[in-house]
Amino acid sequence: MAVVGTLGDIVFSVSKKTVKTFEGMKWDSSAKYATHDRHLKDTLLEFTGRNADSISFKMNFSAFLGVNPIKEINKLLEAERKGKIMRLVIGNKPYGKYKWVIEKTSKDLERFDNKGNLLIAKVSISLKEYAGR
User: Fold this and answer.
1) Which Pfam families match (predicted)?
2) pLDDT digits (tens, 9 = 90+) for 3-35
3) Spacing of C-alpha 109 from chain mean position
4) Which domain holds residue 97?
5) pTM for this structure?
């Protein structure tokens, strides 16, 4: 099994029997500015810091690729609902200055079998940088 990366104890991996990876990763960052009005002059911007970064990506879970979609969704939900603080590592490189929390997940439950078992799901995941105190 080739490990592509991890989000805490959630492993992104590829092997002959399973595919559990991400796609479409987007990393957003922004700065904060205060605007000061000045009499008969242009406004003045003052840098006041930075906003927390965010990362979003999608994961496809398919029973046909050796993954139990509902089990993987439940792992993500548990981390989201418990506010678990996790390091994002891809290719042995940590991403971001701080660790991350799952801010939001959106789940597309696409295909079920005749017994109601989930076969294919697509999950959109939004992470928020967690700087601590």
Assistant:
1) Phage_P2_GpU
2) 999 999 999 999 999 999 999 999 999 999 999
3) 18
4) 2-130
5) 0.89
